[in-house]
Amino acid sequence: MAEQLLIAGEWVPAASGQVSETFDPASGTRLAEFAEAGSADVDAAVAAARTAYEDPAWRDLSPDARGRLLWKVADLIERDAAALAELETRDQGMPIALTTNVNVTLAAQVFRYYAGWATKIEGKLSQVSVPDTLHYTRREPLGVVGLITPWNFPFAIAAWKLAPALATGNTVVLKPAEQTPLSTLKLGALCLEAGIPAGVVNVLTGGPEVGRALVAHRGVNKISFTGSTEVGQQIAGVAAADLKRVSLELGGKAPSIITRGADIDAAVAGNLQGALFNTGQACGAYTRFYVDAKRHDEFTEKIAAAAQTLKIGPGLDFDTVLGPLVSQEQLDRVAGYVAGGVEQGAQLVTGGRRASGAGLDDGYFFTPTVFSGVRDDMTIAREEIFGPVLSVFSYDDEDEVVARANDTDFGLAAVLWTQDLTSAHRLAARIHAGTVFVNQLPLIDPGAPWGGFGLSGWGREMGTYALDEFTETKGVWVNLAR
């Protein structure tokens, strides 16, 4: 039986009866069938969310009670953590250590973080100059919000959108990527089990047309999207028709600056992990390595040698470091970028091919790839590859490397490797990115904002910033004159 849609608290097939399939990227075998939603299902889900939004069972729920529901979801995530991690690994391909220690763990943390915020959403008293007048503001939910999530971290990203949307009192239509729908459906089930009222959380599975219908729907007050820059630009254009609120977390091309005085061994280890976690399928992954010219050769040799030692294999193998890419389409995309890099004159130091061998031939595996001699105008230096491809450059001075690191349409994340505190702060201030890491991996925490500059998107997720994304400010004037 195919996995069904969650609409108004009920599991139902698509109105059309159509189904699609999801595959295990480690073997290419079919995992499950899921309902292929259409425009009628979008209409039904939005109507259910609107009804739930106006229902006193949700509308008049106290902030404390709303927070308790979110806390319960976190408890249920932790109860089912092992099963959720395995499901995510089977559907997405990432190593089980990553799904266990990052995806599922972060999802529970996010729900607990925003459970606490449910009782702390405040307005303020405004000092106006009109005599005998009181003015204050209220923070109110937007209404029905559409959450559209990508295939690279399905469970975690669904959680970090859903939790603040619910904490602020909105109702939701959640649409996961068609490549990885299974864990999001499970999250919807956990919300029901936690006691969140019917229709507050609705889950629609299906292809891009479902997302397009959700974005265009006049009954939706906001869209929160994580995915490609191209699709984000399309969403912004469509949303302009009715001026619905939009937040976008899009692509990245994170520079990593390795200074002359950096601990090279630490930089190699950190950059390798920061570049290749989830097989490079992360918008914050480190991809452009600017190394001081005097350390360039040492860094290149060491990171290429280290890349060759990484265990490639199915995500369910606990020894796996590099799992498969999510699909044949993504495998072909990465291979195409690598071929283009060679054609444009970059030096292929290691990797650059589909991985083969026992347990690998039927999956979408690609060897970790290191290029040297890369120019800033090459395609592999400009476009987001979303795979295990590292490009190494050299630089001579700080002004040069800052200009080159900032010479990109993206601005999501960056990293600096230095043992000089002054240099760390000075460079961090000059880099155009929503997040700058210093001597560490690209981490995400519920308390820290996440989002980008330029074509990396609009708005911020996590922290108090997400509360702003899911609320409106209302001013109230009261005449106190008798």
UniProtKB/TrEMBL annotation:
Active site: 249
Gene3D superfamilies on file: Aldehyde Dehydrogenase, Chain A, domain 1 (3.40.605.10), Aldehyde Dehydrogenase, Chain A, domain 2 (3.40.309.10)
Domain Aldehyde dehydrogenase: 11-475
Catalytic EC class: oxidoreductase
Oxidoreductase recorded as keyword: yes
Entry EC no(s): 1.2.1.3, 1.2.1.8
Pfam assignment, any one: Aldedh
Keywords noted in UniProt: Oxidoreductase
GO MF, one annotated term: betaine-aldehyde dehydrogenase (NAD+) activity
Family: Belongs to the aldehyde dehydrogenase family.
Name of the molecule in the record: Aldehyde dehydrogenase (NAD+)/betaine-aldehyde dehydrogenase
Organism: Paractinoplanes abujensis
